């Protein structure tokens, strides 16, 4: 498969999957009624941030796929994508921030594994994941704070 087709496939999977999950699990009344920490961003920011991050994740994934589709970095990419796509249904659809928290922490760990796996051999892909790691680290703190403020 050509590099262009690989990139288009990764963009369709990542951006398309992310948008579909976001649409299907959009925050509703339950989320609006939750107590949130003072550092909770406005709701309008999540869509644009995730769209940009998904494009970066797709580009990194396509680059790594072209180098070594069965290597450690690609395996970490697949794991982080599965965890990413699992988080919203748990948090928003199931309304379980307690169950979503270990998923987002595992996602953060998988992102760090991807960065470590690509740092020497595919630095552009590693760098594309740095803002993603920062955002998911923040999302982990936000998830934990929402759980804490709304527990029991």
From TrEMBL:
It holds the Pfam family TspO_MBR. It comes from Hoeflea marina. The chain crosses the membrane at residues 44-65, 77-94, 100-119, 126-149. The keyword Cell inner membrane does not apply. It is a multi-pass membrane protein. The keyword Membrane applies. Keywords: Membrane, Transmembrane, Transmembrane helix. CDD domains: TSPO_MBR. InterPro entries: TspO/MBR-related_sf, TspO_MBR. Belongs to the TspO/BZRP family. It is found in: Membrane. One of its GO terms (cellular component) is membrane. GO terms for biological process: tetrapyrrole metabolic process. This is TspO/MBR related protein. Its main location: membrane.
């Amino acid at each position: 498969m050509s590099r262009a087709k690989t990139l288009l496939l990764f963009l369709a999977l990542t951006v398309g999957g992310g948008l579909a999950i976001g649409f299907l699990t959009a925050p509703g009344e339950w989320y609006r009624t939750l107590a949130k920490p003072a550092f909770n961003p406005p709701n309008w920011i999540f869509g644009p941030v995730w769209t940009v991050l998904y494009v970066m994740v797709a580009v990194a994934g396509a680059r790594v796929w072209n180098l070594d589709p069965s290597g450690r970095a690609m395996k970490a990419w697949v794991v982080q994508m599965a965890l990413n796509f699992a988080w919203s249904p748990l948090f928003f659809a199931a309304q379980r921030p307690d169950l979503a928290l270990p998923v987002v922490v595992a996602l953060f760990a998988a992102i760090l594994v991807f960065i470590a796996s690509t740092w020497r051999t595919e630095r552009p892909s590693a760098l594309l994941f740095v803002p993603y790691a920062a955002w998911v680290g923040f999302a982990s703190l936000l998830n934990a704070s929402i759980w804490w403020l709304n527990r029991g």
